[in-house]
Write a structure and sequence with these properties.
The protein is mainly α. It has helices at 12-36, 49-70, 79-109. The termini are far apart.
């Protein structure tokens, strides 16, 4: 299998480490919250910053890896079209994340 530029890109490994490290933090925090849900003590909304920031890091690293795969590896003539499609997809993903965070925060402060 021939190696391409996107597999040798210098940001690929740090983005993968960030994605899986953040995913582990997200899963651990979700397990912690579900284990303490039966105690009846209300969760301080500030503690929600841990899974929120971890999920943002997962999304950002996923988007970065998609950029390396789709846009950086595209041929010169196709880059503009790939950048437009990638920008729409990235904006949609971040918008969905932001919508979820705002609704979660509103449900705790209501």
């Amino acid at each position: 299998m021939p190696s391409s530029d996107n597999t040798r890109h210098s940001l690929r490994k740090p983005l993968l480490i960030l994605e899986f490290g953040s995913l582990a933090i997200l899963l651990i925090s979700m397990g912690y919250f579900s284990a303490n849900a039966g105690s009846g003590d209300p969760v301080n909304p500030v503690w929600l910053l841990i899974p929120a920031l971890a999920s943002l890091a997962v999304f950002c690293s996923f988007i970065g890896l998609m950029y390396l795969r789709w846009v950086a590896a595209a041929h010169t003539g196709e880059k503009t079209r790939h950048k437009i499609i990638f920008s729409l997809l990235a904006a949609t993903l971040i918008g969905v994340w932001l919508y979820g965070i705002v609704n979660t925060w509103a449900s705790f402060t209501a």
